[in-house]
Amino acid sequence: MKKLILTMAICAGSYIVGAQTYHQSQFYSTPLLVNPAAAGNASGPYRFAANYRSQWRSTGSPYTTFTASGDAQVLKTASGVLGLGLTFLNDKAMDGVVQTNSISFGTGYHIALDADNVQRLGIGFQGTYNERRVDFARLQFENQFNGEYNPALPIGEELGSGKKQYFDLNAGALYSFSLEDKSLFAGVSMFNILKQEEGYMTEQFKAPSLISVMAGGDMSVGFNNSLYFSGNYRKQGTSNELTLGAAWGMFIDQTGFTSFRLGMWHRVNDALIPYAGVTYKGLQVGTSFDYNVSKQKTQSQLRNTFEISVVYTAEDKDQLMRLIQWY
């Protein structure tokens, strides 16, 4: 039983390897956690974003992820934009027995590729402090059963402190094209560059670096509609993941700054992800639900994953943008 419970804790912890391996379906609503170069590349002077994800809720012990970020354009000239960004992440599994906290601070600089600053090429870097921990006091072990469970009995094995702190680096590059009624972007990023030891028990392991490629666009279609599309490819070690999708937006007022959006994304060989959201001026709220289509029906039926995101982008008084960039 001791080995079984430890295995369960380790498996839960495998989903929580720090900010570089978090998993969210609405990747387009967490710009700084997808590409460090996104810092300062908003359609306004500053931006805030938050995302909450809960999966396996039907098991009674959901795995949850909360992220929050903020970035601002601290220097804007005709030749480029300098941005700063701050992110926070918290992952919990097994009712908080296993969890990770991560704080990242980064900067991005976006060089103008034309006189009108329509096209930009940016690079960005993040420094990250990560803390992983498992609360062994909340687990039950075989040696603690003597006719009945007695938590005062020794475990009989050295497990270590159950905590691990480490620093890491992330980097990315991003190309963007932005007009009043359309925008395009493409970028690549690398997380966990230092490959620090991340184990929180006596045994240690090094997670491989994560490579993330993301691209997409947003454009007006006709008079009262818009189309958004995006894709994200992630590779870490032998694991890889591809998510593709699009959303249709319908403007519901005369100004064109308020819209309702419906869409669908597909995480290949894993899940369909219907999306619904609204935008009002600089505020964007979106919800999604993962419907599993993988062959692992027994496990996938327990996922029951729900996600909600909130993004606010301040108005740029120097440039009127009808569409809010989704990255």
How is the secondary structure organized here?
Layout: H1 2-14, H2 31-34, E1 46-55, E2 63-76, E3 80-93, E4 98-112, E5 119-134, E6 163-178, E7 182-191, E8 210-221, E9 225-236, E10 239-251, E11 258-267, E12 271-280, E13 283-292, H3 297-300, E14 305-313
Antiparallel strand pairs: 1-2, 1-14, 2-3, 3-4, 4-5, 5-6, 6-7, 7-8, 8-9, 9-10, 10-11, 11-12, 12-13, 13-14
Task: Looking at this protein, list some descriptive labels.
327 residues, mainly beta, Porin, 14-stranded antiparallel barrel, 3 helices, globular, disordered N terminus
**Tally of helical runs:** 3
Strand coverage percent: over 45%
Q: Largest sheet, described in full?
A: 14 strands, antiparallel, barrel
Structural class comes to mainly beta
